[in-house]
Each structure stands twice: as C-alpha cells, then as structure tokens.
What does this fold into?
Amino acid sequence: MSALASYKQSVLIVSCALYLVSLCLPALHFAEQASLAGYSLLLWGWWGVVTLDPAWFANPLFIIALVHCYLKGYKRAAIYSGGALVLALSSFKAKQWFFNEGGGTPITGLGVGFYIWIVAIIVLLTFNLVLARQAHKKADHPR
It folds into this structure.
C-alpha cells in the first residue's frame, strides 16, 4: 500500500470516527430541556426543511464527500465537504428546536458533539483540498 493510500485510509477512518463520536455526545443545549445528542439531531434534523434550518443537510454532503474521496475524486470531495462545512456552520444561526408542533424551544448553546462534527468535516475538507491541489500540480507539470 502506498503512503498516500495509507494516509487517505487514515484520514477517512479518523473523519468517520469523529463523526460517529459526535453522534453520541450532546450537540444542543436548552435551558429547560435535556440536551440533545447528535444521533437525535441526525434522526430528526431533516425537519430543518420545514423550519428553514439547513444545517442537517451537511450530513448527506459529508457522506457524498467521503465516497468521492474514497474513489479518488478529491476535487469533488473538497467541494462537497466545503458545502457541508458551510451548511454545518449555519447551526450558529439556529435559535430554537422544535420538540413538537406547539412551538420552538430556545437553544442556549451548542454542545461538544457539534464541535466534533465540525472537526470531522474540516479533517475531510483539508485532506481533499491538499490532494486536489497535488493532482492539479501533477496535471500542470507531468514528468
């Protein structure tokens, strides 16, 4: 196995591991409700379509980026992981979470699970930006 392939495998494993760990940790905090873990946000966050909160859609982009990285489509993977990061960062704009149709519950803070989720995306993005740049340099300067 080449050094690059080993490095790519390590980055994919680290990024996936961080993502999975983020699902087990508190991601949203509330004043009068228990914190929500990342897995709960993953399962119910697609309601963001209704509440105009696009952050959940970072998850499918992250998965697509992982697949493109695995298939050596580093430029596409960088684009998808960059999009995932932008959508994930929109979480800072979220002010409430809807536990039911009765109204939103104010969010008091983002938990450690959120930040680990962001790091998982950044790890994947950084790796793909480096490899996309290397591939571009090789195309400009063939041996």
